[in-house]
Write a structure and sequence with these properties.
The protein has three helices and eight strands. A hairpin with a 5-residue loop joins strand 4 and strand 5. With 161 residues, the protein is of the alpha+beta class. The longest helix has 15 residues.
């Protein structure tokens, strides 16, 4: 009898510790447009605000028509599928949603991005999701003499807020 109870406990323990990879929620963030905002403290630098904004837009991993698909298989994260542009093969990675905040951390290929979730109002008056990526530290490191104050990439989605 003791042996049967021990085996039952072992089986239950193994069943409970099994990895849970089942997706229980999926959400998509289809990107309608991408904008870049840059602020320089000194306009007398070799890098202009327009050049900086252009570089941010060119290097954006997801363009208009692209999509982020988040498959939650944990309460605070799961699999990430990033489609850079319409009809391209998705890049696979992972994401984490910080509990109690509006922060998403995306990790795919060699990219680790932190997005702040907020809303924007469409011309039709609908509140939609906007993902904001603060790139200030990356660009200050890349251009230490440019007197960069702020660099932000904003990705406007068609997903209701």
């Amino acid at each position: 009898m003791k042996r049967i109870v021990s085996w039952c406990c072992l089986i239950c323990m193994l069943a409970c510790s099994e990895a849970k990879n089942e997706v229980f929620y999926t959400t998509n963030y289809p990107i309608e447009r991408v904008e870049a905002l840059a602020t320089l403290a000194d306009e007398e630098t070799t890098l202009t605000q327009e050049q900086l904004q252009g570089e941010v837009l060119t290097s954006a991993p997801v363009k208009a028509g692209g999509n982020y698909r988040l498959d939650f298989n944990r309460f605070n994260g799961g699999e990430l599928y990033v489609t850079p542009e319409t009809s391209q093969t998705p890049l696979v990675g992972s994401f984490t949603k910080t509990p109690g905040t509006r922060i998403l951390i995306f990790s795919y290929v060699e990219i680790v991005d932190t997005a702040q979730i907020s809303s924007w109002r469409s011309e039709e008056g609908e509140n939609l999701v906007k993902l904001t990526f603060d790139l200030t530290s990356q660009y200050k490191e890349r251009y230490p003499d440019a007197a960069i104050e702020k660099v932000v990439r904003e990705e406007y989605t068609t997903k209701p807020y």
